[in-house]
Design goal:
140 residues; alpha+beta; five-stranded antiparallel sheet; 5 strands; globular
Amino acid sequence: MLDLKDINYQPNIQEISEYINNPIFSQFYNFINNEYNALCKVEYSKDVWARGWNIKLRKAGKSLCVIYPKEGYFTVLVVIGKKEKEKVNDLLAQLSDEMQKIFHNTKEGNGQRWLMIDLFDSGCLCQDTLKLIQIRRESK
């Protein structure tokens, strides 16, 4: 079994997908790659709250999101910065109650909100996450 905290073994996307063992991961990951032709990097994080291997997706030098694998689901980090803030505020009322709650419960620091979104299925929360990533991609 894959140990995501083992710094000496870098898993590939297939191994991470098998570890998550949820079809939504492949759908989400493939969508980001197909939609944005994103640069994907599997990196080891030494952060206390998220130690282990994660997947960073970037486009044009900008972070789109970071995926933290878990058993049965995954967490997506989307940073809402100063450039995205106005568009996200305009869109917020159209997003699910769950996403609005995540947004409002995430403290702002240095003009940014680091939204940690747990995805278990392809429902509203997943669709909302993709909308936030699109805003991130479009902001210059």
